[in-house]
Amino acid sequence: MRIVTLNEGAMKNLLEEMLKRDPNNYESYTETVQSIVDQVKAKGDEALFAFTKKFDKAEVSAETVRVGEEEIEEAYCQVKPELLAVMKRSLENIRSYHEKQKRNSWFDARPDGTILGQKVTPLASAGVYVPGGKAAYPSSVLMNIIPAQVAGVERIVMVTPPGKDGRVNPVTLTAAHLAGATEVYRVGGAQAVAALAFGTQSIPRVDKIVGPGNIFVALAKKAVYGHVSIDSIAGPSEILVIADGGANPRYVAADLLSQAEHDELASAILVTDSRELAQAVSAEVDGFLKVLSRREIIEKSLENYGYILVVDSMEQAVEAANAIAPEHLEIVTANPFALMTKIRNAGAIFLGEYSSEPLGDYYAGPNHILPTNGTARFFSPLSVDDFVKKSSIIYYSREALAAAHGDIEAFAEAEGLTAHANSIKVRFE
């Protein structure tokens, strides 16, 4: 891996390189995605099934698009019992963590005759996109569905691309059933996002769409935003490790590569105040590359977006981390908890040498659907909050309004909204 001494110029160049990975920069795909979305909106099932045949090479019809109970039962038989047990333990950890995020409605009654409050209501429906085809991502299934279920969403719809045989990956399907999906449809890509957003003859529309996908899925979510809510426009995965001279270089190298293997656009960055550690980690990376199965992808990722940044101090390391705002941040230092308090921008923070990033991907409980591409400056991980909406509650007695009506009328008249002022005034004629 390239080793760079971090200064102002190097930081500026790094941030510019990172931003090139933003899905919003892929304008060449926008017109294609918009065309797919428009056709599904206009033609419903006809366009949805045609695109499924074109892109996934699978025949789907109104009679077969929804996965039935028989296929779900078959899926359970095809999943190894050991994996099923692991998914169940992971599910319980995820559920336990997200249960702590639940919010209650609240009301504040005051002696002056006012009652103010907030009513928390689950969304009626949510659509979950899960990448599919040959691959299986049961962890993403659990991470997307369980917060919605904990929030109280009654209709949780999963869409995922089928294989060429038209069937859904059994591991994906089993995870969806375990997590509590109420409907599963064998469609994917931009066309599935459009179906969730606008509805078709076979797939009723939903209120919100969540879940990761390729560039077509990301741009389709952007295209339908406003017609429905979405979680975010997900970009490529990334990890940043802050480590001091006492860190184990083998552990650090392994953690960097755990994200670099996702795809060629993934980013893996080490920030350290030890040049000795930087060189040792680089050597360990070279060693791992000789044995890891996704070597070509990792090498391309590291060539484009892999860095070892050497800084003068841990304070400079924190500044770099906050500027990059990584999706995953590991702190492998003598006192990671002290350093953690200075971090403002990160999707998930992993503390200590035994809290490696895959722990969060699969098992610990916090959600692995995280803000990418620097959006951790203003976005949060997927949570129960994403599946509820809040309504303000306002009650004033006549006595309470009498004490305030002059102020309200003055405010309204200052804005030239005389009908607003009159709405209050008539109550005291």
UniProtKB/TrEMBL annotation:
Belongs to the histidinol dehydrogenase family. The keyword NAD applies. It comes from Candidatus Enterocloster excrementipullorum. The active site is at residues 327-328. Pathway: Amino-acid biosynthesis; L-histidine biosynthesis; L-histidine from 5-phospho-alpha-D-ribose 1-diphosphate: step 9/9. It catalyses: L-histidinol + 2 NAD(+) + H2O = L-histidine + 2 NADH + 3 H(+). One of its GO terms (molecular function) is NAD binding. HAMAP family: HisD. Zn(2+) binds at residues 259, 262, 361, 420. It is an enzyme of class 1 (oxidoreductase). One of its GO terms (cellular component) is cytosol. Substrate binds at residues 237, 259, 262, 328, 361, 415, 420. InterPro entries: Ald_DH/histidinol_DH, Histidinol_DH_CS, Histidinol_DH_monofunct, Hstdl_DH. Its EC number is 1.1.1.23. The keyword Metal-binding applies. Keywords: Amino-acid biosynthesis, Histidine biosynthesis, Metal-binding, NAD, Oxidoreductase, Zinc. GO terms for biological process: L-histidine biosynthetic process. It holds the Pfam family Histidinol_dh. This is Histidinol dehydrogenase. It comes from the Bacteria. NAD(+) binds at residues 129, 191, 214. Gene3D superfamilies: 1.20.5.1300, Nitrogenase molybdenum iron protein domain (3.40.50.1980). Its cofactor is Zn(2+). Binds 1 zinc ion per subunit.
